[in-house]
Design brief:
- The protein is α+β, with helices and mostly antiparallel strands.
- The chain has a single domain (2-182), classed as 3-Layer(aba) Sandwich (Aminopeptidase).
- It has four helices and nine strands, in the order E-E-H-H-E-E-E-E-H-E-H-E-E.
- A nine-stranded mixed beta sheet has the order 6-1-2-3-4-5-7-9-8, sandwiched between helices.
- Strand 8 (161-166) and strand 9 (172-177) form a beta hairpin.
- Helix 1 (25-41) runs antiparallel to helix 2.
- It is globular.
- It starts with a strand and ends in a 7-residue tail after the last strand.
- This is GNAT family N-acetyltransferase.
């Protein structure tokens, strides 16, 4: 699978074509060799996430989990892990959704680390694909996730509905997209 998406290159504010692909070992390796130290150095909330583990022991071994990456000029710009069979909507009881278990943009695409960031639109493109995947699975565009505190405003700005803190997820705030037709 390879989808062409657009990112905004911040240095000149131009749209560039990037690829959204299935997550492979190369992307997990890129995380370890190119992202991890920068995330720790800049005290990012996802600094302890282990994408090599997520790839090898979660995505490769569990049919209900899928991983995706965004590449630009062979460099990994973003990563996402979704679960597709076990989560239910809080907005539409009894309906399933795609649950985003992890989503991350490369350190050089984050304003707290680099100003201006290299690219904008990575997280938005990944979430848009999660909605598309939800439609493909018959879930009507429903997507849910628990947000790290620093990302809550991002999800609000994308029109996700905040459904409060979740005591089962370390008090992280839960967000959900409702039916696709209501948010086009």
């Amino acid at each position: 699978m390879r989808l062409t998406i657009q990112l905004i290159r911040c240095q000149d504010n131009l749209a560039v074509k990037a690829d959204l692909v299935e997550l492979k070992q190369k992307h997990a390796d890129d995380y370890t060799s190119n992202w991890k130290e920068q995330l720790k150095l800049h005290e990012q909330e996802d600094k302890f996430w282990d994408w090599e583990f997520k790839f090898e022991f979660v995505i490769c071994r569990q049919s209900n989990r899928e991983g995706y990456a965004i590449e630009y000029e062979s460099q990994t710009q973003g990563l996402m892990l979704i679960e597709t069979q076990m989560h239910g909507s809080r907005l539409a009881e009894g309906k399933r959704l795609v649950y985003v278990e992890g989503i991350a943009s490369a350190p050089w695409n984050r304003e707290p680390i680099q100003r201006p960031p290299r690219f904008k639109g990575v997280g938005t493109a990944l979430l848009s694909f999660a909605r598309t995947r939800s439609l493909e699975l018959g879930f009507e565009g429903r997507v849910g996730l628990h947000s790290l505190p620093g990302a809550e405003k991002f999800y609000e700005n994308l029109g996700m509905i905040e459904l409060g803190e979740d005591e089962d997820y370390d008090e992280l705030v839960y967000f959900e997209y409702g039916l696709w037709r209501y948010f086009r």
